[in-house]
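Example record

One chain of 636 residues, shown exactly as stored in the release files.
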Amino acid sequence: MVQKKVRAEGSRSEAVDDKVMPQFMFKSPRGTGYVFRRGVPADVRDAIGKREFKLVLGGDFRRASQRCRELAVETDQQIASARSGDAIRRPANSDPITAPPNAPSEPALTPIRHVTQDLIAGLHATVVEQVIGADRELRHRSLVAVNPAEKLREIEKIRGWALLATHGEETAVRGLSDMLIGTLRRSGYCLSPELDGSLQERQLLIAYAAAYRDALDVLEGEYSGKASVSRHASAPLLRAAKVSAPIAPTMQLSTAVKEFLQTLAPGKRAMNEKHAFILPAFLEVVGDMPITELRQGHVNDFLRTVQKLPPRWSDLRRKNGQTIREIANEAWPETLSLNTYEGAYIASLRSFLERAKRDWQDIGFPTTLSASVPYVGTRTKVERKQRAIRPEEMRQIFFSEAMEKIIKTPTKAHKFWLLAIELYTGARVREICQLNPQHDWGCRDGIWWLRFTDEVGELPAPDVIKSVKTGKSRTISMHAELVRIGLPEYLERLKHGGARRLFPQWSSTNGDAGAAPGKWVANYLRSIGLHGVSNEKGNAVRGSHAFRHTLLTYGRKSRVNLRCISGHADESDNPVADGYEDETLLLSLDVKADRLAKLYYAIELPTPVPVLIPSTARQSRSGHHHQRSKLGDGGT
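Predicted structure tokens for this chain:
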């Protein structure tokens, strides 16, 4: 019991952390803390040797955030170093001047065997010259103006790291190693093997940090409109050997889309599926091109085109083999709804543009693009909004001729249970159907409970990907009516039979246990004449979501807030204060039970016959027992 309470408190804490989580920091998919994840731009993957930077940050949020910011600067430097000079990556304990296997031949580098003051002065001038020159070249090649405020923030971030290295902080000093090697190579030099790890190498690294800091001071002066000069004037290093840096090819839009899709944050399955559907469509409509050639007109053209598409246009495309433009150019009586346009197409494209501007602006991705074409269709956000079910409609649902057959037939009784649980939990259909009878329910202090969670637990269903839309697990009490008609007994039979999801009679669809049950609910409402019946506002009963409206509406009629039951955020008008509150104390299981007891529908549900456990579930259970006996585990 204590462990579950701690987990609930932790989930609330993590929800608060999300609001201030640094860039590139994500929760571990296994729930064990935080990870740093950053995609490596396509033009420097060969030089860096990986597709993604990925490191474990630990479970402490503050320390993880600090380390994440440090890694952001480190990876910025690695990317910049790879672009500016294709610096050699140096594995631990390797010869610093050994080139990677199969590297192209190049002029010999002059080894540096002693660090002198003349060398330090020349290095200083070289670093300042290269940093300022690279920045000016970027501005000359860019197709849009550089935002001075954003550039100053970037300079300040990097300067903090350089300042730490200047003062001798070990991690910061070592983080500049690859950049130093690249700068020396571009001037025809390298460090001799005997300096590797020596105090002289450290001296040169700290001098490099000081030069880099001075170069940033010059850039800051340029972007802020204030004159700034280097602290040490000296001649750059003489070029002992000319080393020409390879010119990186311009990134294609198709590469950017592919990289975006490959580095999506885990845990947002629904939105990730939208990205995987919409961004290839964007690429088809505007065509592949170098990212430097992408214009606002391309973005606007795509958004105006998709507004002309009919619902489920992809089905037409598969059937007829038409292009997106060909489908959009036809006259359709119904086109995409406002909700779909804004919640899917605009949201996906906006996410892609924001990521692209953040990660690829330094190789020419335009930073002024936006996804803001207004909707010109006639379909409103509320046209398909669902509503609460009326008392007479509840009787229509649970006492129809079709339902009488269902509750009397053991092989069909699971259909009744789906509707009954929806009515008294208001939970999303996927959350209900992924409940695992082996561990997602129980009784505590005389209160029966259900647990909606994305945690797989022991004996997980192999064909189900558990998810909670809000990302927060919740434990709710069972309504007395569900207990009266036998839900605990139903769950116990499923558990004893080995079932690992609530309704094994329905197959899961791509890991979604609620897809097929959700379609059945809509079809059942059609069969009894309730589907599409609207109120005076035009809101109608169309499927499982109507039960969420029902629970919250009748709870409010009874003057009780049931958002803690349905899984909606229960916040006040002061989100800062909400972050300090302990939800597990404010909304303990007995508090939820007290609230739910006030929910009254003025209807008694029928009691179904005991459900028959599918043979697949029994086989799964028997196979599990057989495995345990082979392992010599007597069980309990």
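Notes: The longest strand covers residues 52-58.
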